[in-house]
């Protein structure tokens, strides 16, 4: 299948990045190359961009899509958590902007054999990086009932997490759960019918939870944000698009902490902890898709864009 992915909040992200013609940029979630393509169009002869993605299919597709930009674009098969190392290998010390477009891509959802979708029956996989050995099948068949409950409750924010976990364990005692269809049937049987009629597909939250757990999405995000801000030149911007509340909360809190890291008691007349601001939050409230975009692309409905700008001087 051709790698297709509609870049959400594209114009807003490009505008928020404040692209300089001679700047160096990083797209940490390259995908089909939509954001990178628009950045390339705005770069001059000395400008460049590094595109990183852990999905080999994305790397292949973006390489074809962006081939006309030649050496202006460098594409790397890696995870954005290794951005610092990737840039060191390319002898890049600092950059002028970084983009992350988090979550699962349209291509991953629409390619049944990847096992991300609850709408088609396929092997339970959900790996964003196929070099990884562990799959969703290992989680569904290997985690204890308590562990499954925690994952589904915390990462899926699923009201019926306990019932789903219990039914998964009961079913797998008879035979391993191997496909997305089998898992979807278990989830459906675990949720009262009156609750299935609202709030979207009943398996949506559980599939999201297992995907996040498998790919360590929240840990990777949480552990990478400070490094990415450190990689920015003064005035450089970090633009992050999230698709659910857990991601958004991590980004919001990290941006606030980098803007105001002081840990002194509020009644202290002056700061004595020595922690200085690394920049400022540009988006006090997240930027949301327009009604037109949400109508055209239903997957954009939960998207939120937050932007942080590195300070121009110590404490700025």
UniProtKB/TrEMBL annotation:
InterPro entries in the record: RsmH (IPR002903), SAM-dep_MeTrfase_MraW_recog (IPR023397), SAM-dependent_MTases_sf (IPR029063)
Keyword Lipoprotein: no
Keywords: Cytoplasm, Methyltransferase, rRNA processing, S-adenosyl-L-methionine, Transferase
Catalytically driven reaction(s): cytidine(1402) in 16S rRNA + S-adenosyl-L-methionine = N(4)-methylcytidine(1402) in 16S rRNA + S-adenosyl-L-homocysteine + H(+)
Protein family (similarity comment): Belongs to the methyltransferase superfamily. RsmH family.
Function summary: Specifically methylates the N4 position of cytidine in position 1402 (C1402) of 16S rRNA.
Record-given protein name: Ribosomal RNA small subunit methyltransferase H
Organism expressing this protein natively: Suipraeoptans intestinalis
């Amino acid at each position: 299948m051709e790698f297709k992915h509609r870049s959400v909040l594209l114009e807003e992200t490009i505008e928020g990045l404040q692209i300089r013609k001679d700047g160096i940029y990083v797209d940490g979630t390259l995908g089909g190359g939509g954001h990178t393509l628009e950045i390339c169009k705005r770069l001059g002869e000395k400008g460049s961009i590094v595109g990183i993605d852990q999905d080999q299919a994305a790397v292949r597709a973006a390489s074809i899509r962006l081939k006309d930009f030649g050496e202006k674009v460098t594409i790397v098969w890696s995870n954005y958590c290794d951005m610092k190392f990737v840039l060191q290998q390319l002898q890049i010390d600092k950059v002028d902007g970084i983009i992350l477009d988090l979550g699962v891509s349209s291509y991953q959802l629409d390619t049944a054999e990847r096992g991300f979708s609850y709408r088609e029956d396929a092997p339970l996989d959900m790996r964003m990086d196929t070099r990884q050995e562990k799959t969703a099948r290992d989680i569904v068949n290997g985690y204890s009932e308590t562990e499954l409950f925690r994952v589904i409750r915390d990462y899926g924010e699923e009201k019926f997490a306990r019932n789903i976990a219990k039914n998964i364990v009961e079913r797998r005692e008879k035979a391993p759960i191997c496909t997305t269809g089998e898992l979807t049937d278990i989830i459906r049987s675990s949720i009262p019918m009156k609750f299935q009629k609202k709030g979207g597909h009943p398996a949506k939250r559980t599939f999201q939870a297992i995907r996040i757990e498998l790919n360590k999405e929240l840990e990777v995000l949480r552990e990478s944000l400070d490094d990415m801000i450190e990689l920015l030149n003064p005035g450089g911007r970090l633009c992050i698009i999230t698709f659910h509340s857990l991601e958004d909360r991590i980004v919001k809190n990290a941006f606030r902490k980098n803007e105001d890291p002081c840990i002194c008691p509020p009644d202290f007349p002056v700061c004595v902890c020595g922690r200085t601001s690394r920049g400022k939050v540009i988006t006090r409230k997240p930027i949301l898709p327009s009604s037109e975009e949400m109508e055209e692309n239903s997957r954009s409905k939960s998207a939120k864009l937050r932007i942080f700008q590195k300070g121009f001087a110590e404490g700025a």
